[in-house]
Design a protein that fits this description.
The protein is an alpha/beta fold. It has 5 domains: 2-194, Dna Ligase, domain 1; 198-340, ATP-grasp fold, B domain (D-amino Acid Aminotransferase, Chain A, domain 1, 2-Layer Sandwich); 345-473, 3-Layer(bba) Sandwich (Glucose Oxidase, domain 1); 501-673, Phosphoenolpyruvate-binding domains (TIM Barrel, Alpha-Beta Barrel), CATH 3.20.20.60; 677-801, Phosphoenolpyruvate-binding domains (TIM Barrel). Helix content is 37%, strand content 20%. The protein is built from 30 helices and 30 strands. Strands 23-24-25-26-27-28-29-30 form an 8-stranded parallel barrel, surrounded by 5 helices.
């Protein structure tokens, strides 16, 4: 019975108020076990040896004075001093041993757990410091963990080692940095039934996006085998996102996913002193995701329930049991970095120069830094590192933290965005590129490099010192103009980050970026791969589409997830998605494209835009685009997506394409679907009353409208002097378009470059009474102020007039 134990408390007896007794990790496990098991969140049972047990052990051994002698007066920044003190402190604690009465309680508790789970029970032994997992300090990875412990004697030995690990060099240094008293922090040890994820998968998840602090997403990482590889950064894991607002509405879909290489997995070791070992993952398994969509949905449900229960963003570890096929949470703690970011101060790092890309990996944070590379191959070489250098390593561990805090940036060969290097880099506020593959081979000691994490999910290391700017903007006092200020965005990698810029939605989301960067294949080559006559191209397409039920699903899923990510980032604000607007020469450059595209003398005025959609040469490709958009709206629940047709030359073409879309399940008005038209051809302006019968709004594409009004090829440098959106003829066309929209009661917007480049064009649009203008992200704040000033002047002149 529980009252028989003095130093042991089972999870069923623990709650979040027990942090002083069992530390944050064990208190949280108890809280989840008691409060969330009934909600369907599975948590393996276990027990905690209390902090009182730790103190009792040191009392019995009369070890306190010796610990003070080892640690008092320590200079934690002196690496040799730290190493000496840490080694002595661990020796003192370990040699204190476990008193007999405490040992008997541990054996009894283990036998009780064995009675619940059977004789083949194995347990995980984890430390839980009484000051850890606070909202402002994670203490992640400071103490040791022991896995696959299978007997009472082995358990006692692991507990002794856990107690001693309160004084690892990294833990000592961390406490000094954070102002914690070594002798006021005690250690509890958690003993939890092991989940057989060695036969399945495990990983880490957060109830927000770790890079941007975007709170409406669950971010899940996972790999095969036991979870230590993901936590330590020894593997590049799979990544998944789920969008919380539509998930709560009942939609079940993965917003976005990215495969990891997953080259190794940790499994149980049979016999010997080692309880676990790493083995290679077969190549065929590496190409598959370690979780099914149903698994991802269940983990997202767990994450949302845990966050709702605690009332704050959470960092969780999960494991899938390969025997019972169930998913379990094995740890939860407050997220301590992204959730602390200011919502009113926007810091933007932006490359202004260019350079040779030496390496790419996964970006952590959204900053840029430059410095000399220092390759550290072993923890024993840490003393060679100098402040301000770029730390380059295979992986990092908590032992590296004293030098990590002095680095300009961090680059690793292995690891995902929840590995140790990533967690510490976020805490320190420095950029890190993890999972770079061959960083320690490619980068050389003393080589000047620039580490950029400001270009989306992909982090890049550039040769030399590439120029960049850092701008910090206080958003708290910025007013919102009456004219809607929207954003042009095509790169899903930048969506969450960009959504923090004050905006009224996305006025132009280009499909072309996603098709070019993520899909890479011509849509018709996926519908009719047999028509691709080049064997190398066919092989490349087969490699890209491997693992999908058919090549068409490859296109639909990647396009849906790319657009879905942008739509989710700005939800519930409108996101206007333009259907594909490649020219024939651009389509031909895609894999397999040359077998489906004509060779045109002037592609700018050729087979492009809406002319393709109902045409037999591309209608099957358009059907794939529509299937992706239908999935975004109906399966993901992102009904804020507004569709837009580009380059609609004639009214009967509009009628034909709208009928085709309805046939493909995208009927205007159904499920609140709005469809806009790009207003970029003089005929769109001249016949705007007729075109308005088919559309809910018009977005003026000032680039093409200028080209076709002035008869200037905007791609030709020879006549660039004649290309000017500010020409009176172009401005008249814009004014007529805005007036026509107002007359027909439909939305008017502009998504060209003009207001970003020319303040006077922004003022002109305000004077016209345009409903919205959509700008490139780097021009939003500046143009917002111009629009506010223009509105104020207009209002003032109207009053005085």
């Amino acid at each position: 019975m529980a009252q028989d134990y003095r130093f042991i408390r089972f999870f069923s007896e623990l709650g979040i108020d027990d942090v002083p007794s069992v530390g944050g990790k064990n208190a949280s496990l108890g809280e989840m076990y008691r409060a969330l098991m009934s909600e369907g969140v599975k948590v393996p049972n276990g027990f905690a040896i209390t902090a009182e047990g730790y103190r009792y052990m040191l009392d019995k051994a009369d070890a306190w004075q010796s610990l003070h002698q080892a640690l008092d007066g320590l200079d934690s920044d002196n690496m040799s001093d730290l190493k000496r003190a840490g080694s002595r402190a661990r020796q003192i604690v370990y040699e204190a041993g476990v008193p007999d009465d405490l040992r008997e309680e541990i054996f009894a508790a283990y036998e009780k757990l064995e009675a619940e789970y059977g004789e083949d029970l194995s347990v995980a032994v984890r430390s839980s410091a009484t000051a850890e997992d606070l909202p402002t300090a994670s203490f992640a990875g400071q103490q040791e963990t022991y896995l696959n412990i299978r007997s009472g004697e082995a358990l006692v030995e692991s507990i002794r080692r856990c107690f001693a690990s309160l004084f690892t060099d990294r833990a000592i240094h961390y406490r000094v940095d954070r102002g914690f008293d070594h002798f006021k922090v005690a250690l509890s040890v958690g003993v939890q039934k092991m989940v057989r994820s060695d036969l399945a998968a495990s990983g880490v998840m957060f109830s927000l996006d770790t890079e941007t602090g975007f709170r409406d997403a669950v971010f899940i990482t996972g790999s095969y085998g036991l979870g230590e590889n993901v936590v330590q950064g020894a593997v590049d894991p799979d990544e998944f996102y789920v969008f919380k607002p539509t998930f709560r509405q009942g939609y079940r879909s993965v917003l976005r996913r990215r495969p990891g290489s997953k080259k190794i997995k940790m499994i149980y070791a049979e016999g010997g002193q080692q309880t676990t070992r790493n083995v290679p993952v077969p190549h065929a398994e590496r190409e598959l995701f370690c979780l099914s969509d149903d698994d991802v949905h269940l983990l997202a449900e767990y994450a949302i329930k845990v966050e709702d229960h605690y009332g704050r963003p959470m960092d969780m570890e999960w494991a899938k049991d390969g025997i019972d096929d169930q998913l379990y949470l094995v740890q939860a703690r407050p997220e301590t970095v992204a959730s602390q970011k200011s919502a009113t101060v926007l810091e933007e790092h932006r490359l202004t120069g260019s350079g040779k890309v030496l390496l790419e990996g996964r970006a952590v944070g959204n900053k840029i830094a430059a410095g000399k590379a220092q390759v550290i191959s072993d923890v024993r070489r840490l003393s060679e590192f100098r402040p301000g250098e770029v730390l380059v390593a295979d992986i990092t561990t908590p032992d590296w933290e004293p030098v990590m805090k002095t680095a300009a940036a961090i680059v690793t060969n292995r690891g995902g965005r929840t590995c140790h290097a990533a967690i510490v880099a976020r805490e320190l506020g420095i950029p890190a590129v993890v999972g770079g593959g061959e960083a320690t081979e490619v980068l050389k000691d003393g080589q000047m490099v620039t580490v950029s994490c400001a270009e989306g999910d992909v982090g890049r290391i550039y040769e030399g010192e590439v120029s960049y700017t850092v701008e910090e903007v206080d958003l708290s006092d910025m007013a919102r103009p009456k004219t809607e200020i929207m954003i042009n965005l095509g790169n899903p990698d930048l969506a969450f980050q960009t959504s923090f810029i004050p905006n009224d939605g996305v006025g132009l989301a280009r499909m072309e970026f996603i098709i070019n960067e993520s899909i890479k294949v011509h849509p018709m080559a996926l519908v009719h791969p047999e028509q691709v006559e080049d064997s190398q191209e066919r092989a490349a397409i087969e490699k890209l589409t491997r693992g999908y039920r058919d090549p068409k699903e490859f296109f639909i899923r990647n396009l849906a997830e790319g657009i879905g990510t942008i739509a989710a980032a700005f939800y519930p604000k409108p996101v206007v998605v333009r259907m594909s607007d490649f020219k024939t020469n651009e389509y031909a450059s895609l894999l397999g494209g040359r077998w489906f595209e004509p060779d045109e003398a002037n592609p700018m005025l050729g087979f492009r835009g809406s002319a393709r959609y109902a045409h037999s040469a591309y209608s099957e490709g358009f059907a794939l685009e529509c299937a992706a958009m239908k999935r975004v709206r109906e399966e993901m629940g992102l009904t804020n997506v507004v569709l837009m047709l580009p380059f609609v030359r004639r009214v009967d073409e509009a009628e034909k394409v709208m009928a085709k879309m309805a046939e493909l399940g995208l009927e205007r008005g159904k499920r609140d679907l709005k469809v806009y038209c790009m207003c970029e051809i003089p005929n769109n302006v001249v016949q705007i009353d007729r075109f308005a019968e088919y559309f809910d709004g018009f977005s003026i594409g000032s680039n093409d409208l200028t080209q076709l009004t002035l008869g200037v090829d905007r791609d030709s440098a020879l006549v660039a002097f004649d290309y000017d959106e500010r020409d009176e003829g172009v401005k008249n066309m814009i004014r007529l378009a805005v007036e026509g929209c107002r007359r027909n009661g439909v939305h008017s917007g502009l998504c060209g470059q003009a207001p970003s480049d020319y303040p006077e064009m922004a003022e002109f649009l305000v004077a016209c009474g345009i409903d919205s203008m959509s700008l490139n992200p780097d021009a939003v704040l500046k143009t917002t102020q111009i629009v506010l000033d223009a509105e104020k002047r207009l209002e003032s002149s109207e009053r005085s007039g």
